[in-house]
């Protein structure tokens, strides 16, 4: 037997107030007395009443908006993505916003998924573009929706992007490997159209050449997943067995590379990752990696999202935050 749904009218009867007083308690608490508010909340708690925030947002959308923010992400087999999503959702909730995950893949109907999210009166979007193809990002940008890009720069004047300085990340990795006296170096890349991977390679290559070292061997990949790093390292061991050091476009690729070295009896080879995900500190890996300042990135995303929502920002901007090297 279905349990009767408790409504605001039930709460009003229990508290001995008008239905409008119940509504104001949740939508405009400053417009009711403390005594009325206390009676309403006590009655709601006793009855198990939960206000319908979405319905209230639809009624007030012209003034307040829904507060729902779509977080568009992909490649959750890369541990950086769930880590980032966790930090983003916490930050959004702390600012009174409601995160809605829109998980996209290359095989899905991207437009349909985005339209589905919009049907829930999404007010803005955070696009984790570093995990998406350029085409997917373009589809997101076609929406007439306030948004902030994360992890990919965009030339549109109206788009704000927040990202780590990926070229500097490559330079830091190169400098570390050079300091160890290594010369035969390689780069395990992420997806071929990934801006972060391409920029990290550019910084890595430029710094090596500027220090008189040979250009790195490049192992291409379709994504940023562990198994791609494993297979790429196996290919390097077969084709370039004398390789001494490897810089990987992300930690997940580096974990795969390290396990390939262990399980295939590879030569002594130093592996450097990029991201500094929590798993990088695990005893089984103790990975030296370039740390993305994720907390700063998230703080900047929330800051600029609020400015966009308020209508304060008319022109977009690109914010780059400097990474650091974590040696383990």
UniProtKB/TrEMBL annotation:
Which keywords does the record carry?
A: DNA-binding, Transcription, Transcription regulation
Q: Which Pfam families match?
A: LacI, Peripla_BP_3
A Gene Ontology molecular function term of the record: DNA-binding transcription factor activity
- In this chain the HTH lacI-type domain maps to 6-60
Can you tell me which residues the record assigns to a coiled coil? none
- SUPFAM superfamilies attached to this UniProt entry: lambda repressor-like DNA-binding domains, Periplasmic binding protein-like I
Protein name as catalogued? Transcriptional regulator, LacI family
